[in-house]
Design brief:
Belongs to the FAD-binding monooxygenase family. With 495 residues, the chain is of the alpha/beta class. It has helices at 14-26, 44-47, 59-62, 78-91, 187-196, 221-229, 232-256, 258-273, 279-282, 301-307, 392-413, 437-440, 461-470, and strands at residues 4-10, 32-35, 98-99, 102-110, 115-122, 128-138, 143-148, 162-164, 179-183, 202-207, 213-216, 295-298, 311-315, 318-322, 325-328, 333-335, 338-341, 345-347, 355-357, 360-361, 369-370, 374-375, 381-383, 417-420, 478-481. It folds into 2 domains: 4-145 and 347-481, FAD/NAD(P)-binding domain, CATH 3.50.50; 150-343, FAD/NAD(P)-binding domain (3-Layer(bba) Sandwich). The protein has 13 helices and 25 strands.
């Protein structure tokens, strides 16, 4: 296999495979590789094996728009999503270009050749090698695969049972007829609780702070109708756009009138759980809707598990672990045979390796994000991140398509380097006002956003379509150049 490529994609998950499909469609003879640190396609959907693992975005928008999601469930299970990504890779011939067990441990851009040198560690035998590439598209996700967020709890060594982190769920783990305490209030916790409750003796969700939880139908009712009267392809496209617009509308209304949104979510929780249930203690957060990501549950399965007495919630501060379970600060003892620490992720936002330019370390926190895609003063690289208020794939796909647009533009004009340059003296702002703990823990390490376009990190799909796909490539902030020596030409784009 060649050691010099036109593009290298880091990560063979949903984003990486989707971007590779876009690439081979536009550049059928292009030289590219997909680097995957693990031994399988699927990314998140191969790594996470905890019970009930599923999407928290609807599959019409989490799936690819060029390859309609074949299932009927609104929120699909992890194994089905993994199979979908694998089938897509096979259909487009991407699997032949994947280098497994290949972890990028360093990236250095050489301005004399306008090529990236990637140092790769073989995760099987520990050996190292290097490859070169004109462009890098990092689709490595936004969290560390080798480590979850696992905060310290006093008395951990005193607990008599098993302590399990969902990111490292043991294979064939038997929890039948066990008392289980799940620590956490995010998407992982609300997925685990009703699933574990099916066979456990009882499941208690232990949360410091409540989360907004909303129910979704297991199947899209509108699509069930359009599937009967329209072609499958047309029905998919109509409903995909419907879901994009609906999600955007819900988010905008929540931000415009958070008090009304809070009342509506609370009203639905009371309807699901009954007037006597303490909704304001367990399902009414102190923050506004969409300051953190909303949790969705299919057919209200979380509420149903509580109503059946299979699950319950304890809200408050943990004092310590004890032999019999978890002791809360108010003196409540949560008895447990197993404690599941669904306490979150360790973030890296696509870059858990050092980046350098001509050997000089590049610190992304000192730079600005351009169109949510590139980082100022960093050439020929895009790190894919998704939306905080919508499906990950929507933005990931736009960023992959934007890089391909850049590559075509540069090939036609003979350029070998593109780099955003921020204006002098621009005001620096945090890249997002998102309040989730996993995000706030690393926000100081992330690029900044500015005070004007194209340096604003706008969480809006319609806006990004306009600026990443429809707008001209030319921009005063983008600097194009060509190496002095003759560069290897980019592959011809497909007609």
């Amino acid at each position: 296999m060649s050691d010099t490529f036109d593009m290298v994609i880091i990560g063979a998950g949903l984003s990486g495979i989707g971007s590779a499909c876009r690439y081979v469609t536009e550049f059928p003879d292009g030289q590219f590789a997909v680097l995957e640190s693990r031994e399988a396609i699927g990314g998140t959907w191969d790594l996470f094996r905890y019970p009930g693992i599923r999407s928290d975005s609807d599959m019409l928008t989490l799936g690819y728009d060029f390859r309609p999601w074949p299932g009927v469930k609104t929120l699909a299970g992890g194994p089905a999503i993994k199979a979908y990504v694998e089938d897509t890779a096979r259909a487009y011939g991407i699997d032949d270009h994947i280098q497994f067990h290949s972890r990028v441990i360093a990236a250095d851009f050489d301005t004399s050749t306008d090529l990236w040198t990637l140092t790769i560690n073989d995760t099987c035998d520990g050996s190292q090698r290097t490859i070169r590439t004109r462009f890098v598209l990092s689709c490595a996700g936004y969290y560390r695969y080798d480590k979850g967020h696992d905060p310290h709890f006093d008395g951990r060594e005193d607990f008599a049972g098993d302590i399990v982190h969902p990111q490292f769920w043991p294979e064939d783990y038997d929890y039948a007829d066990k008392r289980i305490a799940v620590i956490g209030s995010g998407a992982t916790a609300v997925t685990l609780v009703p699933e574990l409750a099916k066979t456990a003796r009882h499941v208690v969700q232990v949360q410091r702070t409540p989360t907004y939880v909303a129910s979704l139908p297991s199947e899209d009712p509108v699509m069930k109708i359009t599937d009967r009267i329209l072609s499958k392809k047309l029905s998919y496209r109509i409903n995909r756009w419907k879901n994009v617009k609906l999600a955007g509308s819900i988010y905008r209304r929540a931000k415009k009138n958070p008090a009304k949104t809070r009342r509506n979510i609370r009203k639905r929780a009371i309807k699901a759980l009954g007037k006597e249930y303490p909704v304001d203690i367990h399902f009414n957060p102190p923050y506004e809707p969409w300051d953190q990501r909303l949790c969705v549950v299919p057919e209200g399965d979380m509420f149903k598990a509580i109503n059946r007495g299979e699950a319950s919630i304890v809200t408050g501060q943990i004092d310590r672990f004890v032999d019999a379970g978890i002791l809360m600060q108010d003196g409540t003892l949560v008895e447990a045979d197993i404690i599941v620490t669904a306490t979150g992720l360790e973030m890296n936002f696509g870059r858990n390796y050092p980046i350098a330019i001509d050997g000089n370390v590049y610190d992304q926190s000192e730079h600005f994000l351009f169109k949510g895609a590139m980082t100022s003063d960093l050439p020929n690289m895009i790190a894919v991140t998704g939306y905080t208020n919508a499906s990950w794939t929507l933005r990931a796909d736009l960023l992959g398509r934007y890089l391909i647009r850049l590559m075509k533009y540069m090939r036609e004009r003979g350029f070998t380097r593109v780099m955003p340059v921020a204006p002098e003296g621009m005001v620096r702002h945090p890249v997002s006002d998102f309040q989730s703990g996993y995000f706030r823990r690393v926000i100081d390490t992330l690029p900044r956003q500015g005070d004007r376009m194209p340096w604003l990190n706008v969480q809006n799909y319609k806006h990004d379509v306009k600026h990443l796909i429809e707008a001209p490539i030319e921009d005063d902030a983008l600097h194009f150049s060509q190496v002095d020596t003759k560069a290897e030409p980019l592959p011809e784009a497909a007609e």
